[in-house]
């Protein structure tokens, strides 16, 4: 009897989706010590509190002004019994964020205590007081003020430079080597094996079809992963980022009092379009919409305000018309459409089974394709809706995706070449009784068991072989 290990199945047809963490997921991956250090800064406490589920905010507010621990049974009584599952989910979140700490009073009664650092600084940010924020220094009136329209245009132009670089467009100026390193670190681009030039990856294709707010947040998370390697202080930079989060659009802020590390961080944010600064050494800067409400559930509609007008028209005959002269927008459309004609301000393309399946092979999902077409739909399509897109087109894109999901691949180990039918039946029955049998064929005396159970099955077979010899 011989065994052989099968190849990993899921990678044959499906690629891993792009994982974009929200604020909670990012913070829970940090150590409790780092979280406590972060909570020494009121802006971070406010940002975290604002993103908590409603039940969690309720629990925090009830404990905020209590100077002693509260029995877990009492906290549980604050929630209806019908919502007991939500209560457990909320408690888990609060513990993961190091906001709740479990303790025991004399007698062994379990209690919950609010993290003292978080409690102190949340009080400050809600009630007032504490040290002035980094960018709170007074400024003289700007002789050349920038209005909201200018800041919106600047932000989207700077961000599109990154996207143009990813699709290989020469329409925009290049990006810095630092930004390229972040794209490589994030796995959105890889070095070409032949000439070493950066080329887009499957994750990069998925990234391009995200809305702008999600793209910016994902990019910033990757930047934060590399921040300590740059010699910058993670806590200091995160604090400043969340101060920007609560800034006012169209208002200028002072750089006075910033450390050298923060000034470097500011220049990186400037390159990505999160802040506008006239000159590198200018004493003032303007936050843009990309920095406002970053990493919150409220960022998408706000960022949508700076998106360009919709330019895509989709017809029931699968034709897609794009009223644009942007190489970036044409390249994005080409990810899942077959380009037929291109004119100075119009691109005619068509959705085909092959073009959509090519996109699916690149890791793009049907939901992302439909979402992109919806997000950039021409105003005429929106006026004629709902629905914005023809239902037949949406259904067909999903059906093309389902064609690829008809098979489920499971990694396993194959056993064959048994010396007798009795040996085959013994191993088959053992695998069946232990629920590790994936497939068997009595004619060819072939058994496939799950990959995790291979060692146990092998040990069983050795014991059986010794006993029967």
UniProtKB/TrEMBL annotation:
Pfam name, any one: Tfb2
Residues annotated as domain Transcription factor Tfb2 C-terminal: 395-462
Keyword flag Nucleus: yes
Gene Ontology annotations of biological process type: nucleotide-excision repair; transcription by RNA polymerase II
InterPro entries: Tfb2_C, TFIIH_p52/Tfb2
GO molecular function, one term: ATPase activator activity
Chief localisation class: nucleus
Keywords of this entry: DNA damage, DNA repair, Nucleus, Transcription, Transcription regulation
Compartments where located: Nucleus
GO CC terms, sorted: transcription factor TFIIH core complex; transcription factor TFIIH holo complex
Subunit field text: Component of the 7-subunit TFIIH core complex composed of XPB/ERCC3, XPD/ERCC2, GTF2H1, GTF2H2, GTF2H3, GTF2H4 and GTF2H5, which is active in NER. The core complex associates with the 3-subunit CDK-activating kinase (CAK) module composed of CCNH/cyclin H, CDK7 and MNAT1 to form the 10-subunit holoenzyme (holo-TFIIH) active in transcription.
Function: Component of the general transcription and DNA repair factor IIH (TFIIH) core complex which is involved in general and transcription-coupled nucleotide excision repair (NER) of damaged DNA.
Family assignment from sequence similarity: Belongs to the TFB2 family.
NCBIfam families for the chain: tfb2 (TIGR00625)
Protein name listed in UniProt: General transcription factor IIH subunit 4
